[in-house]
Write a structure and sequence with these properties.
The structure holds 2 protein chains of 2 kinds.
Chain A: H1 2-16, E1 17-20, E2 23-26, H2 29-36, E3 45-51, H3 56-71, E4 77-83, H4 90-100, E5 106-110, H5 115-122, E6 129-130, E7 132-137, E8 140-144, H6 151-161
Parallel strand pairs in A: 2-5, 3-4, 4-5
Antiparallel strand pairs in A: 1-2, 3-7, 7-8
Chain B: H1 2-21, E1 35-37, E2 42-43, E3 53-58, H2 64-80, E4 85-91, H3 103-113, E5 119-121, H4 127-131, E6 135-136, E7 138-143, E8 148-152, H5 167-177, E9 190-192
Parallel strand pairs in B: 3-4, 4-5
Antiparallel strand pairs in B: 1-2, 1-5, 3-7, 6-9, 7-8
The chains are: A alpha/beta, B alpha+beta.
């Protein structure tokens, strides 16, 4: 009986955060928020970008984020690209896309389809369309609903969280 | 005199803010339009003589969220059309920005999926900014007098099998019954609309 309980607990743990290939997939926003938007260091800049393979402005700006991430390697800087395709598309669309476009930045999949529950938690001003970028440091959070057109443009917004 | 000037200036500022924010709020009167449908004809809300209300949905060909909702939109027309609450779908996108949203491809989509509602193109992109549609799909439920009664999502889940709360259907039911709509505003993820 005790062994069964252990097995069941492990299964439960696995199902809440499971992996496709090397991409962590979140079934709920709250779990994702706990890992990436809360309890952040005061000395690190976090850049969180929401994107999807079918979103033209999203993929247009991804190279800038990728370049920015490489530029900040070894510094107090963390970036995560949050994919909104749908967990069903991870193997068929997302992984091939990342490979083809040589995206090495950390990617997670957010598969919480009850979007009305968590849109305002990201930011009350968010219309619900992507791409969006959140820049965080400590307990500061800046939200941007815009399409970036250069690495410099992202850097300019990052400067603001450091002030 | 000073008080009147203050009120006047305040009203101007408020109006500017309203226009700057863009789009309708609950209780605003929506604009009618004359847009070309996939049937080749021009469509206006006032042409729908038996209408008791209008279910205006901004949607398009290419967006995965729009595609995920196509069957549900057809089902809404099937259920509520006969009651006088017809769906009117409008593609707000500029085909020059995204060729997948061209008029010809709208016709293909309407035929392929068997759309039972008019699917119109917002040529010149003049209508969607007035409504304040920010993504596809985006719903504006209007009463008989074109007053906006509900704005936002069709239901609570992008994936059909997880739907628990059919926001729009509930809103139409409430409108039919003369009851208050709650919630009147919802938000969901969708594909952004781009002006050229």
């Amino acid at each position: 009986m005790k062994n069964l309980k252990t097995i069941l607990s492990i299964l439960l743990l696995i199902t809440s955060v499971y992996s496709f290939g090397q991409i962590k997939t979140y079934a709920t926003f709250d779990e994702f928020e706990g890992d990436y938007l809360k309890n952040l260091s005061d000395d690190t800049v976090y850049v969180v970008n929401f994107w999807a393979t079918w979103c033209a402005p999203c993929i247009a700006e991804l190279p800038y984020f990728e370049a920015l991430n490489k530029k900040n390697e070894g510094k107090n800087f963390k970036m995560v690209l949050v994919n909104m395709d749908s967990p069903k598309s991870t193997e068929s669309r997302v992984i091939p896309f990342l490979s083809k476009n040589k995206i090495e930045t950390e990617v997670v999949v957010l598969g919480d389809s009850k979007t009305y529950k968590w849109i305002d938690k990201v930011d009350p001003s968010w219309s619900g369309s992507i791409p969006i970028t959140i820049i965080l440091k400590g307990n500061k959070k800046h939200f941007y609903e815009k399409d970036y057109e250069s690495v410099e443009e992202i850097e300019a917004d990052i400067l603001k969280i450091n002030n | 005199m000073k008080k009147q000037i203050t009120v006047f200036v305040f009203t101007i500022l408020l109006s500017i803010a309203a226009v700057a924010q863009g789009g309708y709020k609950i209780g605003d009167k929506a604009t009618d339009f004359k847009l070309k449908g996939t049937d080749g004809k021009m469509h206006s809300l006032k042409d729908m003589k038996d209408a008791k209300g209008y279910v205006v949905i901004f949607t398009c060909n290419h967006c995965p969220f729009s595609k995920a909702y196509e069957n549900r939109i057809i089902a809404l027309e099937t259920k509520y059309g006969p009651k006088g609450y017809h769906v009117i779908a409008i593609n707000p996108n500029d085909p020059e920005v995204n060729p997948a949203d061209s008029y010809d491809l709208m016709i293909d989509r309407a035929v392929e999926k068997g759309f039972n509602f008019p699917y119109l193109i917002d040529a010149g992109q003049k209508i969607y900014p007035q409504y304040g549609a920010t993504k596809t799909p985006h719903v504006f439920l209007l009463d008989k007098n074109l007053i906006v009664k509900y704005i936002g999502a069709i239901d609570d889940s992008t994936e059909e099998e997880n739907v628990e709360i059919p926001f729009l259907a509930n809103a139409i039911d409430a409108l039919i019954a003369g009851k208050a709509i709650n919630p009147e505003l919802t938000k969901a993820i969708g594909c952004g609309i781009k002006k050229k």
